[in-house]
Amino acid sequence: MRQQATLRGMLVVEHADPGLALLETDKAQDARYAQGVGKRLRFALQIIRTVNTEKDLYRFNGLHYKRLKRPGGESAVWLNDKWRLEMIFSGDAPNEKVRILRISNHYDD
To answer: What is the mean pLDDT of residues 19-45?
Structure first.
């Protein structure tokens, strides 16, 4: 019974780009980004998968989670000083989902 409560509350993660799903599972893909970005992506997604709602991400100060000032309700977490993992949430708890959109260069240089 305890296990059902835990599974019911976790966010469902979807990837808009199959390359991001591959980056999550295949460390050889890390070369596509700056050093440490792949490792930080995997860390962030582990946390995202364990929370119950979007609001729970604010508790993890190391992620620097915030809602972006863009139309469409996008959010982001820091992967390092330059790169962000952008996502969008849909649905309501306990059926909330997160769609991972992209890794973006925060400064566009």
So the answer is: 87
